[in-house]
Q: What sequence folds into this?
């Protein structure tokens, strides 16, 4: 997993020239106000574990936080944070980072679901705040809701844990935090999300929480069956066009390429000639039977087809491939959904 994060993981879309999406800007507006409302003010110091390209911390700094620091395992993301936003980061993982500083506010937005031992990290956060009079933590994760609320690809390689409202609150309480405020969204993002603001001081707002593993298992089973049907159905819709292709390339060396291969009979129906992606980090890396290539190095020919596997960035990728279509290359959208929402 650390090899993936340090070499392949990219959380900024090259098509946006490294700028945040409108959804990301909107989400940060809400997070800052949600935390400020829940506490009554913004604390002076903030540590973000999993700080990505530094945009989140830059927004908190602009909002008035005096000291910000990130923790980020991705080499490219650490460099981006410094170059784009002048944000300093500890280049390490959530499990291994060390700091002598204390922080009033700790942010873990879409991090806990990636960790093999999330409770260890939450306990570590709590210990970092022993020296402050009152510490706060804001945690946001994908919400495991009812199957019909979950988007295609909800279960992905890099997500190890899945949270309901009940087990997320339990996790925070067991680590020594007391929840203050909870926010849930089902339609504003591709995946349902839940955010929890909690304090190191006892609040006693949630006294009895019950997690039912039987209900959770039922949700997982129903969603998994729905997921396989969905991916195969998407492939079936473009199969005739694929059959006419001279060569077929998959666009996107990542999670959704894995999922179309795993969840459909694509490889039984088609010969895939290659894999390509605009991310320089992925060029030369092997995924399945293919080595990811720089699209500029491929001898594109009329009659070739590019199949875009991405769900979240499908339209952005499609819009950026006008140059291929001018060469007579067919660019197929697997999901064909115009959706500007973000994970």
A:
């Amino acid at each position: 997993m650390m090899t993936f994060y340090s070499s392949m993981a990219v959380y900024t879309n090259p098509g946006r020239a490294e700028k945040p999406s409108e959804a990301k800007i909107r989400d940060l507006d809400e997070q800052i106000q949600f935390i400020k409302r829940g506490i009554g003010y913004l604390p002076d110091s903030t540590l973000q574990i999993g700080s990505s390209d530094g945009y989140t911390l830059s927004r908190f700094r602009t909002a008035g936080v005096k000291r910000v620091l990130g923790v980020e395992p991705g080499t490219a993301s650490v460099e981006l944070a410094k170059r784009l936003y002048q944000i300093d980061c500890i280049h390490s993982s959530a499990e291994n980072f060390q700091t002598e500083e204390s922080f009033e506010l700790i942010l873990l937005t879409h991090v806990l679901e990636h960790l093999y031992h999330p409770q260890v990290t939450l306990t570590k956060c709590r210990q970092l705040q022993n020296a402050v009079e009152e510490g706060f933590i804001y945690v946001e994760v994908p919400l495991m809701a009812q199957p019909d609320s979950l988007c295609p690809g909800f279960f992905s390689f890099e997500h190890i844990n899945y949270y309901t409202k009940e087990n997320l609150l339990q996790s925070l309480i067991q680590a020594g935090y007391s929840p203050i405020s909870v926010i849930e969204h089902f339609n504003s993002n591709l995946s349902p999300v839940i955010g929890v603001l909690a304090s190191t001081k006892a609040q006693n707002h949630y006294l009895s929480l019950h997690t039912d593993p039987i209900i959770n298992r039922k949700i997982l089973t129903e969603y998994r069956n729905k997921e396989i049907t969905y991916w195969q159905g998407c492939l079936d819709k473009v199969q005739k066009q694929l059959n006419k292709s001279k060569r077929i390339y998959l666009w996107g060396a990542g999670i959704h390429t894995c999922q179309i291969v795993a969840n459909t009979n694509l490889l039984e129906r088609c010969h895939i000639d290659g894999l390509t992606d605009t991310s320089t980090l992925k060029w030369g890396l092997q995924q399945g039977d293919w080595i990811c290539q720089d699209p500029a190095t491929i001898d594109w020919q009329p009659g070739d087809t590019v199949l875009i596997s991405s769900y979240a960035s499908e339209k952005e990728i499609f819009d950026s491939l006008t140059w291929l279509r001018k060469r007579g290359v067919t660019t197929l959208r697997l999901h064909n959904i115009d959706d500007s929402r973000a994970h």
Remarks:
- The chain is about 35% helix and 15% strand.
- The longest helix spans residues 213-243.
- The longest strand covers residues 178-185.
- The mean pLDDT is 90.
